[in-house]
Fold:
Amino acid sequence: MKQQTNALHAGYEKDSQGTMVVPIYQTTAYEFRDVEHAADLFALKELGNIYTRLNNPTTDVFEKRFAALEEGEAALATSSGMAAIFYAIANAAEAGDNIVCATQLYGGTLTQAAHTLKRFGIEARFFNVHMPEQIESLIDGRTKVIFFETLTNPSIDVADIEAIVEIADRHGILTVVDNTVATPVICQPLKHGVDVVVHSASKYTTGQGLAIGGILVERRGLVEKIKSNPRYPQFNEPDASYHGLVYVDVPLPLYTLRARLSLLRDLGAVVSPFNSWLFIQGLETLPVRMPVHSANAQKVAEFLVAHPRVEHVNYPGLESDPNHAMAMKYFKNGMCSGLLSFDVGDFERAKEVVDKTEIFSLVVNIGDSKSIITHPASTTHQQLSFAEMEACGVKPGLIRLSIGLEDAEDLIEDLKKALG
Ligand code: PLP
Structure:
């Protein structure tokens, strides 16, 4: 099936009522037929619903539909994008291990990697996403994950996915990629050899800023990379917390299975069925929305680049942008999503421009149908040191826009007035 068809149908078989809309299974638990049935479900001899912290029929549709859009094997939904990122990493790494991350990351991911994972004994080492060759000198026998974003937030860089995957594969290391900003409509990292894709579903997936959620998707055939790979004993040796289950021996997608049976079971950052339902509604229109976000952002970027009071514009759709060639290599139909940033010189001027806009809402979010303006230095990246800010491409005068689905001419007029 094509992506637009999958966005509307994948993962859902109508119930006996013929319900057109996926029902919300708002329940904590499920009745077992008898004790043997219960035992079989716990032993994975039969697959089925046990308890909504582990699985839920509405969430199951959301997971299957997202996996179809990314052309992955299976997905696991979580309560937030941050939880999806943590699970994707914690599934592979433990105390004493390290991960190698791009410096150009979402601020929350950066603090999770540099500070929170450190307290769990996992060290984050950083490379410049434009210099994949730096990775080689950072990895060792305890490197478990190489993490980066396809289209970075907020620095708007585009990763050379295949160059990074080539290094990772040569060393048998898993690649985990945040594809939130590009979405599978624009870029499908699994097709370029990435092992696991993560998303904040709170962005373009809901599309209307309705709910917080996350998802991780594993590629088909990932078991071959993990089986007998000495870096990942947790998949190759019996899991003492699950009566000796050896994940590589189970004929199920192993990365999401372990994340579900171990991490979701024990840490519990589960998505609510209602939020899964909202995400399903959002996915139905994702392939229709992304071309409009992209076309609007292109027009706004072209306006800003020609404006005398704008020092610099970051948008890969601009031919002059250093990321343009990479975007044309990895992104479909010239689409570059709705995120762009521009520099007006200094902190105070940026605050003034942000405060003067009227259609744009001052919000720390992206991927909404309504346009959003943010000043990263005073909000999302405030907790970072200036050195950390610089390293991930955030300057004091940088303004980030998440271009929505309004008429581009109105957005341009609003920015024209704010810039003065
Ligand atoms: N990844 C990216 C690229 C993001 O922009 C965000 C949030 O802004 C996240 C992950 C975190 O997602 P959430 O807010 O759903 O936890």
About this structure: The chain has a mean pLDDT of 96. The domain at 3-274 is CATH 3.40.640.10 (Aspartate Aminotransferase; domain 2). The two ends are 49 Å apart (CA to CA).
